[in-house]
Amino acid sequence: MSQTSEIALFEQLAFIRGLTWNVFDRIPVAQHDVMPAGFRNHIRWQLAHVLFVMERFAFQLCGQPFEDHDILAKQYGNGSTPHTWDGSEMSVDQLKSRYSDQIDRVRAALIGKLDEPLLEPYQTANGAKMNTPRELMTYAVFHEGMHLSVIKMYSSLLK
């Protein structure tokens, strides 16, 4: 693929990240940790889950170091819930710090490598199969958009 398509993909990642953060930043702090009735997570968990999945996709699955994987997987991985948090979860300030530079770190790690094969093919819980970092990053755009929609819905339910 061309360098232009790489740039376009990273621009899409940065765009959805900006949308997600802008929506989150406008939500009253009092809503961040409230679970709407019938749901098992809250807005802060949604944001942290997106951050965790991007780290996993861009680093761990691409053979790059992901130092705090076990801790983040327990707190923000699929099937996790704030009901089991132990007080060591990321604050909003910590999330903001990691969120703000994540796409730049991903770009630096993956530029020129988007079409290389993954160490092992990856399959999502819903059956999507991915073989390259490009496929993971394309799916990451969808994944973040899906959670952005959940964040907006939770905020509406909590008003």
Concise account of the structure shown:
With 159 residues, this protein is mainly α.
Please characterize this protein's 3D structure.
By secondary structure, the chain is mainly alpha-helical. The protein contains five helices and two strands, in the order ααααββα. Strands 1-2 form a two-stranded antiparallel sheet. A hairpin with a 5-residue loop joins strand 1 and strand 2. It starts with a helix and ends with a helix.
User: What characteristic shape results from the CA principal axes?
Assistant: globular
H-E string: HHHHEEH
CATH class: Mainly Alpha
Uncertain spans, ≥5 residues at pLDDT below 50? none
The SS-based structural class is mainly alpha
Annotation keywords:
globular, two-stranded antiparallel ribbon, 3% strand, 58% helix, mainly alpha, 5 helices, 159 residues, Four Helix Bundle (Hemerythrin (Met), subunit A), single chain
List the helices and strands and how they pair.
Elements: H1 3-26, H2 43-58, H3 69-76, H4 92-110, E1 122-123, E2 129-130, H5 133-158
Antiparallel strand pairs: 1-2
